[in-house]
Write a structure and sequence with these properties.
By secondary structure, the chain is an alpha/beta fold. The chain contains 19 helices and eleven strands. It starts with a strand and ends with a strand.
């Protein structure tokens, strides 16, 4: 099957917006007699007028041939045999050989004793053609190729049309695609939230139907996707989609159960059921330099700790550590980061007003985790609407302590907490939670 070709006059992708080192790799492969295309999210973002995060390249050259062409190349991976071409400043360009879906020589795998057939892809090193490579990718918007030869866009899967319609759609049967790789369901949510797209109805229905398949995915991959969602700047929308599809119940059942209790008014610290989403929106407004993962995980776990009694009269340490013991491994938080997240959360109790005359806690402020703890403190004050007077006290004392008169000027190496106006404002918001399979998803999905 021939691709639909969009010549340079019919698309907005310009070489001036492509990384110069990516162009060097493309041209060297092309001049060596290999087919080489810019592929995936880089092409998608260039068409949408966005700055690509990565510039990935697919080629007809085999990994060993790529390595011979580039002295700065390293071959990595077992499931995916990839070439990483290294440049200065820790820049790495990923170059892969065209692949195709592996053949099932003996048909489908046998069902287990419960009748389950495991369709997950375990190995993916079968080389193929450009068309086969496009059709093995996850979503149509990620299956586009940019040809450095004539500057055209090659579309085997209808991705350009879906970009114009703002739709996320799987390539091929979504039921099969999600069973092959359940992590694709999380990626579908990520792309919908990041790009502001709707999901194709068949894709959405397949995701709801196969949400429990995420339990069979490799835990480290799921954990990394959760961390990336928190860092994306669209964490609130991502969590809404995970909740609406039922994926959240499978991935992090503790947070799902909390949202259920809060939605029914059973959490004293969250009577309107919106505290979690207000915190996520504040998280999304943080500058990228402030999004250290310990802080993001602390924000994610703060409502659970508040419900457990973090700001109550009981000693907070065992309460917080119990939550961390239950959720730390599930979220893939390293032991080192678990301790930092714990200290960020415990600091919230230490920042409360006391009956006796208060002195400024210089030792606490000197702790490395204090800037992150203060960011969370500000978020909680804004999200709950209580504690403004105490927050004003902290702002004034911190300004005096740092000798600037304003909190926002205090430097923090490697961390830029959003003090002052950068912290964002609380906006009225009421989210009605839905259950999978009960309808009410018209604004989330698009008909084909």
């Amino acid at each position: 099957m021939q691709p639909k070709v969009y010549p340079r006059t019919r698309h907005p992708v310009s070489r001036k917006n492509i990384d110069p080192d990516a162009l060097k790799v493309l041209y060297r492969l092309y001049r060596a007699g290999h087919t080489a295309y810019l592929v995936g999210g880089g092409v998608r973002d260039l068409i949408l007028g966005r700055a690509p995060k990565d510039f990935d390249i697919a080629t007809s050259a085999r990994p060993s041939q790529i390595k011979k062409l580039f002295r700065n190349c390293r071959l990595i991976g077992r499931r995916f045999r990839l070439a990483h071409v290294h440049f200065g400043g820790d820049k790495v360009l990923e170059v892969s050989t065209f692949r195709r879906e592996p053949d099932l020589e003996d048909g489908l795998p046998e069902a287990d004793e419960d009748g389950f057939v495991d369709l997950q892809i375990r190995m993916d090193n079968t080389f193929g053609s450009p068309e086969e490579d496009a059709r093995r990718r996850d979503f149509t918007v990620n299956g586009l190729f940019y040809d450095i030869d004539d500057y055209s866009i090659l579309d085997y899967v209808g991705g350009v049309e879906d970009l114009h319609r703002s739709i996320i759609r799987t390539i091929g049967d979504p039921d099969l695609r999600f069973q092959e790789d359940p992590v694709r369901m999380i990626r579908a949510v990520k792309f919908c939230a990041r790009l502001g797209f709707k999901m194709d109805r068949a894709t959405w229905e397949a995701m709801v139907a196969h949400r429990w398949a995420i339990e069979r995915a490799a835990a480290p991959r799921v954990q990394e996707e959760i961390a990336r969602l928190l860092e994306s700047g669209t964490a609130c929308r991502c969590m809404e989609l995970l909740d609406d599809s039922g994926l959240l119940e499978v991935m992090v059942p503790e947070i799902f159960a909390y949202l259920e209790r809060a939605d029914h008014g059973q959490v004293a610290e969250d009577l309107d059921g919106q505290l979690y989403y207000r915190l996520l929106r504040s998280m999304d407004e943080l500058p990228r330099t402030s999004k250290a993962r310990p802080l993001l995980f602390a924000i994610m776990l703060a409502p659970l700790c508040l419900e457990a009694g973090l700001l109550g009269t009981e000693p907070p340490d065992p309460l917080v550590r119990k939550v961390m013991k239950e959720l730390g491994p599930r979220l893939g938080i390293s032991r080192k980061d678990q301790e930092r997240v714990t200290q960020i959360l415990l600091t919230q109790r230490r920042m409360l007003p006391r009956k006796r005359k208060r002195t400024f806690p210089k030792a606490l402020v000197a702790r490395s985790y204090f800037p992150e703890a203060f960011v969370l403190y500000r978020m909680l004050v804004q999200a709950t609407g209580s504690g403004e007077a105490e927050l004003a006290w902290w702002n004034e004392r911190l300004g005096e302590f740092w000798g600037t008169g304003q909190v926002s000027s205090q430097p923090s190496p490697g961390f830029a907490p959003p003090y002052g106006d950068q912290a964002g404002t609380t906006r009225p918001y009421r989210r009605r939670r839905r259950r999978p399979g009960r309808g009410g998803h018209q604004e989330l999905v698009a008909d084909s």
